[in-house]
Amino acid sequence: MAQFQALNQVLQNPSSGAYFEMVQKRKKLPMSLQETLNKAFANIPVSTFPIVPGGKVLEIQANASVGEAIKILSDANILAAPVCESDDVKAVDWRERYLGTIDFSAIVLWVLESADIAAAALSASSAAAAGVGAGAAGALGALAAGGTGPVAAAGIAAAAVGAALAGGLAGDQVGKDASSAADTLGDDFYKVLLEEEPFASTTVRSIITSYRWAPFIPVAADSSMLGVLLLLSKYRLRNVPIIEDGKPTIKNFITQSAVVKGLDNCQGRDWFDCIAAQPITELGLPFMSNDEVISIKSSELVLEAFKLMKDNQIGGLPVIEGPEKNIIGSLSIKDIRFLLLNRELFAKFRELTVKDFMNTIASEARDLGKGTIPATCSLSSNLGSVIHILASKMVHRVYVVGANGKEVVGVITLRDIISCFIFEPPNYFENYLGLTSYEVKIDAFKTK
């Protein structure tokens, strides 16, 4: 019933309705065409959607460390993966096996909180020979055992302050030292956060419990694609696990990126080409205007960029320079892996500017034969070209630039693209929520 409750919460989110209502008002497609598309997607079963590359969904075990999860996601170049119990747990049904999804959004939340805690602990230990020592044992042990989040954070911070005071450090100095510990202690900071207790023992299980960005809502394999597309667009899910009732493993993992790639593969089909040829402005795009785009200046700290993503629940932002907000690059939430997998870079991340961080990424990208130019389009671009950019460059957003080719005037996301092709029929999910509890338990999360 937990996933049923999660779905109910998602459907009741007022921001989802406001966004989708705005999208529908701005779209200029004939209603007859939209109804035809909706009917087509409603008749396509989820089971026909292409299976993930390799034929098997990548999973991360709940007892894996955060560091291990980061490496798995980074090596596979994916944003998220389902979290499962260890293979020792003999599950007979998917409900017994899966705990949720881990993604870089949750990791960013954890890192931002843990960095402050680690800095406080380091500043305290620099003043007291015992470090956080015995006085902090209880709080540290709680975090090592998986107790993360605000309560555990407060416990660690308090323990650090207590140890500092015991060592003769003035209370008001702790706050100052905590904010600068990473700047002065360099490599030690990296070691504390990712290699020493309690942080090294922080498990994926605790991350998805305390820092979950979005709910885990599986969908049955015999559901329709329309329901999945609505979850990925109106209801802001980035991925939808596909399950078969009575079986213990996830059959497929449908992401926003996979859907847009599928749309790009539809080039040459009349129904797609008819829509793809439309200028983006005729579809009301970009839905987010220039004054709504959240950006970061290249001279600001990269830490502030990730905080902006966290505070606004977005997956990326443009990097700009000058009064005209000219785009010189972009950052995504997945880029935090460059910090966490690069000891030297991470050791100075509190003083690292966005520009210096991007230069490091660009250097690594060149070594791998990849480019780092931000994905952009113009107001005169058609929908098909934007879809192709998203699919071919494997990015989650395209920035719309003005006549000079540099000023950011809008942004188009994967969610926006999917929203262009569908609308929600009256009472679509309300009818689904009207199932009896027995049907929900047996049939799991079948959309119409």
Automatic annotation (TrEMBL):
<feature type="domain" description="CBS">
    <location>
        <begin position="368"/>
        <end position="429"/>
    </location>
</feature>
<dbReference type="Pfam" id="PF00571">
    <property type="entry name" value="CBS"/>
</dbReference>
<dbReference type="InterPro" id="IPR000644">
    <property type="entry name" value="CBS_dom"/>
</dbReference>
<feature type="domain" description="CBS">
    <location>
        <begin position="288"/>
        <end position="348"/>
    </location>
</feature>
<keyword id="KW-0677">Repeat</keyword>
<keyword id="KW-0129">CBS domain</keyword>
<dbReference type="InterPro" id="IPR046342">
    <property type="entry name" value="CBS_dom_sf"/>
</dbReference>
<protein>
    <recommendedName>
        <fullName>CBS domain-containing protein</fullName>
    </recommendedName>
</protein>
<dbReference type="InterPro" id="IPR050511">
    <property type="entry name" value="AMPK_gamma/SDS23_families"/>
</dbReference>
